[in-house]
Amino acid sequence: MEPIKNTAPGMRKMLLIASILVFSIGVSLFLLTEYTDLYFAWTIKSPVTAAFLGACYWASGVLELAASREKAWINARSSVPAVWVFTSITLIVTFLHWDRFHFSAPRFITVLGTWVWVGVYLFVPVILGFLWLRQVLKKGAHPNPAPPLLSWMRGSLGLMSLLLFPLGISFLLFPNAASSLWAWDLTPLTARATGAWLVGWAVLFGCCAWENNLRSARTTFLTLIALSLFVGIAIFRFPQSVDWQGPSGWTMLLLLAAFALIGTWGLALQARIRTDALP
Description:
The chain is an all-alpha fold. The chain has one domain (9-277). The protein has 9 helices and no strands. The protein has helices at 9-31, 36-39, 47-68, 80-96, 108-137, 151-173, 188-211, 218-237, 247-272. α4 runs antiparallel to α5, α4 packs antiparallel against α7 (188-211) and α6 packs antiparallel against α7. The radius of gyration is 19 Å and the shape is globular.
C-alpha cells in the first residue's frame, strides 16, 4: 500500500514563517492603524482602510498557521494557491507604486520596515512556489476522503469566488474607479492592495469548493470566521468612514455574516461527525 502523501517539512515551515510575517504586518495596520507613516511600508491616511488590510493579514495568518499544522497534504493544499497568488500580486503592486513607499523616511524603523516588506514579497512567492512544485511532484496516496461539503455550503463558496475574483481584478486594473464599488474611499495603491486580497480570497474559496472535502475545508472555515471577526471589528471602529447610504456597506456586512455562518457551521459539522478521527 502506498504511503500517505504528507505535507513536506519545508512546506510546513514556510507556512508557519509566513503566518508570523503576516501577523507582524497586521499589527502595524490593525493595532497601529493611525501611525502607518511610522510603522508601515507606506502611509495609509484612511484608518478604516488600514484596519481592513490589517484584518486581512491577520485572517491570512490564521489560514497559514492552520495549514502548517496539517500533516496530510490533501488537508493543506487548498490554502497554498491563495497564498502564492496574493504574494505574487502584491509584489507587482509594490513595483507599480514604488514611489509611494517609505524608502527615504527620516526614521530608521520606517525604512527598515519598508525594506523588510520588499524582501518578504520578493522571496516568499519564489520559495513557496518552489516548495509547492516539489509538493505536487511528491509521491504518495491521499487518505480516505471525508464527507463532501453540504450543497449550499459548496455553492456559497463557489459563488463568493466567482464574485470576488472579477471584483479584485477590476480593482487591480482600474484602481481609480474602485471607490465607486467599495464601501469607503480608496486610493489607487490601497485599491490595488485590496484587489490583491479579493483575488486571494477568491482563489481560496474556489479551491475549497473544488476540493469538496469537509475535512480539508477546516483551514478555510477557520479563515472565514477570522475574516468576519477582524473585518467586522475594523468597520465597528470606524463606522463614520463607511458609506451607509449606498448598497456597498450593507453588502459587505451581509458578506461577513455569510463568512461567519459558513465557517461556524462547517466547524460544528466537523465536530458532529468526528472528522478529527480522519487523517
